[in-house]
């Protein structure tokens, strides 16, 4: 009985932390919470994925110039993907990576749908990776090149659910954004008065 109670307390504490994190993120990038802006960010994430796949495809030999080009492309693509996914998580709200206990039924349904599509895309990309590895199997450094392509495709697969949400979610209600902005401004003023 004691372990159940401590488990429930830990779960409630985690839920409160998740809700606090959500409240903090809800005040960020308020002007970007439109489908138009989210689709731009989805395009940036897709571009980052394309850069990483291109980098994995160009590694062919021990030429220093090829490796320098690879490293520049690879890490640029990785930075673009990570930054884009972070922005998408803020713009798409709690549906992307939050605890299921804080989601309502509609949000859970959307999350299940995009995760299911993401899983299907991941399986298809692993088949593509297998085909790529089979094509390069007899070439130099095939295992290394195949591993890089596998990693690039795996990153693409992890990006898909957030990209789908960013592309398909409707615009946030402007009244909700105005109300949230007013609440944040009021909280900021009362916090300054309490500290000042």
From TrEMBL:
Keyword terms: Membrane, Transmembrane, Transmembrane helix
Membrane spanning stretches: 41-59, 65-88, 117-137, 149-169
Stated name of the protein: Uncharacterized protein
Organism field: Amycolatopsis suaedae
């Amino acid at each position: 009985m004691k372990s159940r109670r401590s488990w429930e307390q830990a779960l409630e504490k985690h839920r409160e932390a998740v809700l606090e994190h959500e409240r903090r993120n809800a005040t960020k990038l308020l002007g970007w919470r439109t489908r138009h802006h989210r689709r731009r960010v989805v395009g940036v994430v897709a571009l980052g994925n394309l850069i990483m796949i291109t980098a994995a495809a160009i590694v062919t030999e021990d030429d220093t110039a090829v490796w320098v080009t690879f490293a520049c492309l690879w890490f640029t693509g990785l930075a673009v993907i990570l930054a884009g996914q972070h922005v998408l998580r803020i713009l798409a709200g709690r549906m992307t990576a939050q605890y299921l206990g804080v989601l309502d039924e509609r949000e859970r349904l959307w999350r299940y749908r995009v995760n299911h599509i993401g899983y299907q895309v991941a399986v298809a990309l692993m088949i593509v990776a297998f085909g790529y590895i089979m094509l390069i199997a007899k070439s130099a450094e095939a295992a290394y090149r195949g591993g890089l392509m596998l990693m690039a495709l795996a990153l693409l697969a992890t990006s898909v659910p957030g990209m789908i949400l960013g592309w398909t979610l409707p615009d946030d209600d402007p009244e909700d954004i105005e109300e949230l902005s007013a609440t944040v401004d009021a909280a900021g003023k009362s916090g300054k008065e309490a500290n000042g």
